[in-house]
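[agent] plan:
  1. take the single chain provided in the ticket
  2. run structure prediction with default settings
  3. attach structure tokens to the ticket
  4. add a short note for the reviewer (M.T.)
[agent] executing step 1
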Amino acid sequence: GRISLDDPLVKAIPDLRQYDMNAAERRLTFRQCLAHQTHLPAVEPLYAYGQDPGTLRAFILQRVWQAGSPVYSDINYMLLG
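[agent] step 2 finished; step 3 output follows
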């Protein structure tokens, strides 16, 4: 009962795009991520940014993701994790 599927991710991840309060990522819901109904990319070579979990977390949370059609995206589940 702490979150609803229709709550925005920022309820659990307040630092998601924290420097841009109008960012589209701040409006993404748990339901959208679970159903892969977000604008996040299908492929992103995260391995190219290193292996440090803190660095990768910061990259995913602060990255300006380009808008696109909803596709299966690993980023959705990384955010949910």
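[agent] step 4 note for reviewer: The chain is about 25% helix and 0% strand.
[agent] ticket updated
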